[in-house]
Design brief:
The two termini are 27 Å apart. By secondary structure, the chain is α+β, with helices and mostly antiparallel strands. The chain is built from eight helices and nine strands. Strands 2, 3, 4, 6 and 7 form a five-stranded antiparallel sheet that branches. Strands 5-1-9-8 form a four-stranded antiparallel sheet, with no helix packed on it. The chain is flat. This is Ras-GAP domain-containing protein. Keywords: GTPase activation. InterPro entries: C2_domain_sf, Ras_GTPase, RasGAP_CS, RasGAP_dom, Rho_GTPase_activation_prot. GO terms for molecular function: GTPase activator activity.
Length: 358
């Protein structure tokens, strides 16, 4: 029975391991860009489980073509059993569905089958587990997913388009800025950054795009570098692209230590149970929190010499360009908004979104 297979315990994946496991073999064909091909991408979030006994631990396996591709962490059911677990994989063109199997410890509880129908939209719903057992209340699992099948032409077919983007990406962003929702801005900015990086003009593109935003908004606009524009989404995508290893080296150890720390750091009086000695408890929690903030801040300061050279060059060029425009007052605002507001702080708040933790 494929659902009774044990999930393999493997060491921490390297970036290369993740890429090799999640992408089809055709990606490793050095001539793949010379030929027509189809890529089938599944993005799947395993969110939460309900209608199961409390105080038990549960986990899930994602099975693709009867092989275990991804395993969630084991979570204990209290009021809810929540994972919020995300994975992305390429699917063989012959596959018509994938399965998510649910386990209580080593016991298989049931599974759901998800049919693979290509769509530009994300689907989210509760699935009832299919099982041989006849429980009064059928366990349900909430899953969000999107399967997208894309036909890709030989690289030569995109020659004119690549040349157009290299010469007109900034003006294209200007035309699209007011017409796109935030999610589309994120997708398009990321695509443009990846193309620019591959074509070796990412630095020029980012500098011109951000200077254009400064020109359009003016120095005193409170949303400058803070709003959801194509410029801010582009620099955010670039930091993700070139800075993942730096981010992990800087904050991963601290984040894991915080999660494993038994000391309470809650400082909101309304969220602290047992109100006896409340003032003393708050002070103790504040001290623990301040120690953690100090520790992670020290790691950030010490990491400056390890900042990727690509980011050093981009921010250096932006600084020079702003100084030429007599806008020295914006240099620190730009760099801090990018590195902290859009990179380090979101990674600390949501480490799973940055592949730091599940």
């Amino acid at each position: 029975n494929i659902f009774n297979r044990r999930s393999p315990k493997t060491p921490k994946d390297t970036a290369k391991d993740k890429e090799k496991r999640s992408l089809p073999n055709e990606r490793y064909d050095p001539d793949r860009d010379l030929h027509f091909r189809t890529e089938n991408i599944l993005k799947l979030w395993i969110l939460e489980l309900k209608n199961v006994p409390q105080k038990k631990k549960y986990y899930c396996n994602l099975l693709v073509d009867e092989e275990i591709y991804h395993t969630t962490q084991s979570k204990q059911k209290t009021d809810i059993c929540f994972w919020g677990d995300y994975c992305e994989t390429s699917i063989d063109s012959q596959s018509s569905h994938v399965c998510v199997a649910v386990y209580k410890k080593a016991t298989h509880l049931g599974y759901v089958k998800i049919d693979l129908v290509s769509s530009s939209k994300t689907t989210e719903k509760w699935f009832k587990l299919e099982s041989d057992k006849s429980d009064k209340e059928i366990p349900q699992i909430r899953i969000k997913y999107r399967f997208h099948s894309v036909d890709i032409l030989p690289l030569s077919a995109y020659k004119a388009f690549r040349e157009y983007l290299q010469n007109n990406s900034v003006s294209l962003c200007q035309m699209l800025e007011s017409t796109l929702p935030v999610k589309s801005k994120e997708d398009i900015a990321s695509a443009l950054v990846h193309i620019a990086q591959a074509q070796q003009y990412a630095q020029t593109f980012l500098v011109n795009l951000i200077l254009n935003e400064v020109k359009n908004k003016g120095d005193n606009d409170p949303t400058l570098f803070r709003g959801n524009s194509l410029a801010t989404k582009a620099i955010e995508a670039y930091m993700h692209l070139v800075g993942e290893d730096y981010l992990h080296d800087t904050v991963e150890e601290e984040i894991k230590s915080i999660i494993e720390d038994p000391h309470d750091m809650e400082v909101d009086p309304m969220k602290i149970p047992n109100f006896s000695n409340l003032k003393e408890k708050i002070q103790k929690h504040q001290n623990s929190l301040e120690d953690r903030v100090t520790s992670i801040w020290r790691r950030i300061l010490q990491s400056s010499i390890h900042l990727p050279i690509e980011l050093v060059n981009v921010f250096g060029s932006l600084k020079e360009a702003l100084l030429k425009e007599a806008k020295s007052n914006l240099v620190d605002v730009l760099i801090s908004s990018c590195i902290f507001l859009r990179f380090l702080c979101p990674a600390i708040l949501n480490p799973s979104l940055f592949n730091i933790l599940q």
